[in-house]
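Regression report. Comparing outputs from two consecutive submissions.

Submission 1:
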Amino acid sequence: MSKKPTLMGELLAEFFGTMILILMGDGVVANVGLAPRLASGAYNWNTIAFGWGLAVMTAVYVTGGVSGAHINPAVTFALAIKKSLSWAKVIPYWIAQTFGAFVGAFGVWLAYHDGLVAAGMPNVWATGPGSIFGEAFWGGATSAAAMGTYSLGNAFIAEVIGTMVLVLGVLAMGDSKNLAVKSNIGPFMVGMLVTAIGLTLGGPSGYAINPARDLGPRLFGAVAGTPGLFDGSYWFIAPILGPLVGAAIAVAFYAIFVSKHLPDNNE
């Protein structure tokens, strides 16, 4: 008789998977921003994009067999809207994911402690104004300049669109009526999808596309002594609200433009 994961098992998987995601994802941010081996000019946006894609791939491979490895409240929200997940699991999943992200950020703090302290505990944790990308890619730009000319509204829209693309890809990859991927290649393809989003749509906001990915490390960063992480309303509007809106739009668009036009499996 097959063993079905319990809710506690699923929550532990979501916690652990999101912890791995942030350990590696914020780890590449710290590596690029602090540049411990090479000058920052030796790195570029590709390093960030591929690092995050590999982080997602690894996390999904490790825990996907237990919970499906949502590791993202926006994905959980989308699956609940689609009725592929009970609404009763949504809040527990969100809590597990956010706590896992917090612990993953702690792991980055342990791995890069000396460099972070020497640099004044910069923001390697979360997206938006004040992120370390301002130092790594814009030569010591101020927080405002690091965001370039992108407004909060533009960043919000970028998060909506980026998350919409992410969820559309996830829905398609898991749809047996569409060109669903095999379970053993699924994590790799999701990682490549995240890489593609970073390379194509990630610039305006830093592509959180995952509320837990941004909020959990942001909370840890505030505890660790990084200033300004909760100044203003950016922290909620772009990386939290934006992905949830994008996820809901993706479910609607997939139903309208794809699902209803797919043939039955027996045709």
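Submission 2:
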Amino acid sequence: MSVEIANESGMDVDELILVDAATFAINRMEVHPAAELAITLVDLDTIEQLHIQWLDLEGPTDVMSFPMDELTPGGRPDAQQPGPSMLGDIVICPQFAYDQAKRAGHKPDEEMALLTIHGVLHLLGYDHATAAEEKEMFSLQNALLSEWLDQRQS
């Protein structure tokens, strides 16, 4: 599993937490262990520009995902033998995330891990456009985050 981090946010972020959370989620979702993922940390202006450009939505957001290969747990759905793939890119705005964590009463590192797991699930094809999709994705996201947090504490 290769997770590349580019911190362009101007903020100090514990990148090892992001790598650990992403690797944990990808392993639990049974993606090929040689898969690659890129995480870019950006400032508020950059995430807002991306939000407008790609989703036609005003204002900044916390996380965006840009899938490269259509993957599902276990690998590409059309592949006989799942192999390594480039999952895609996750873009996170630490400033937005830290403010969001404060409002929700979370630790900033936990919020960053949650957003990383959320981004990984989007790269694997999960979405929350409908109530049923939201229930499925957020239930899985919360289970993965809880298991990851439990693993870190033991």
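Expected: both submissions complete independently.
Actual: both completed, but the second showed a warning that disappeared on reload.
Relevant detail on submission 2: Residues 131-153 form the longest helix (23 residues).
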